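DATA CLASS: polypeptide
GOAL: derive structure tokens

***
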Amino acid sequence: MIPPALLKQFEDLAGADNLFTAPADLHTYSYDAAVLEPALPALAVRPLTVEQLGGLVRLCNEHGLPLTVRGSGTNLSGGTIPAAGGVVVLTNALNRILEINSADMYARVQPGVITAKFAAAVAGQKLFYPPDPGSQAVSTLGGNVAENAGGLRGLKYGVTRDYVMGLSYYDVEGGLVKTGAKTVKCVTGYNLAGLMVGSEGTLGVVSEITLKLVPPPLAARAMMAVYDDVDKASQSVAAIIAAHIVPATLEFLDRFTIRAVEDYSHAGLPTQAAALLLIEVDGHPAQVAEEAAHVEEICRQQGAVRLEVATDAAQRDRVWEARRAALSALAKLKPTTVLEDATVPRSQIPAMIAALNSIARTHNLTIGTFGHAGDGNLHPTICCDKRDHQEWQRVEAAVEAIFKKALELGGTLSGEHGIGLAKSRFLEMETSRASVEWSRRLKKALDPKGILNPGKIIGG
């Protein structure tokens, strides 16, 4: 419970219309897309200006109130679940695209800008912003920065960190820190932007982002390779990468996921297939033609029973929208959906897919697997019911087995969803005790009272 006098300070700062204390409102901000217990904050507040944002950070620190910044709440690792009794700061009113500079190919945005709306605005200026997380229709750029979000195009174009040229953010005392520049090159001071990207709101609160833009590709060709055997599909992924071809996207869906997506989207996917690869190459027209032909040849050599090349933009978009609906389709099947993103070196994709099938059998679970196979980032999705305690114990054991296998194959706990609360206890398994302790010392130095998104990444 926040004392009335302190609540009045929040009201004076942000306005009464932008304070939310009703239980129904607070429940909305008590959880995110991770399968974790919610935590009810004492207050949610929506700043209308970045100056108000800085003032809110300062006020929370002065009174030792835990502060969690929330965009759209699509986080899949518990990164936006607040501390009980703390403050949630909403960024949805800080949603201005401040500048799109076509000459120097950068943009400046506030953290509450929706990813897809930004990409569309950039495309309207004949430029391209490649990062495309699956939640792009609702996720915010501030959240993308906090989690270092990826997406379908990560294989060729990289992830959010590859496009952050500069940041402005508030430290825990409400001081405005500026790092990076609008220039292609900048080595002024420490790489604070690099530290902030992926820090999940634990080190500072972002108020403005400068993002690199690139020219759009001149041509693209999309295709679907159909397989009667999962191993043949996974071997095709490894073979395409081994041939030094880097498609814009190279996505994998297993049979269970294909059927769920088709039932959900009616996109015309072949439901009898054991696996699909959805592939797109882009670039100069001549390069696209050559690479597409090579990819088709590789897929056939590896056992594809059918190849379908999109004949127009509508057909291409229909298939890609179906792929983006994979999580939604799987989520309709059971009350609980556990989506993981353990990631392995690309050459280990066949081994990881085989391991996921084995883990599903061992723990008697339904696991649908899809994901960004081209960059090793798979999304094994467990369809279950958390209310069934015995099944949930098997789910927890399976998740740990997935993490261990990914690390055994030289991979990582998370390719794009972050660590948050869900994976913090596994962090030392991938890194080292010294890495975790060093991170805790850094956090303590920058946030002595521990108010900034407490408990995330490195635990409490």
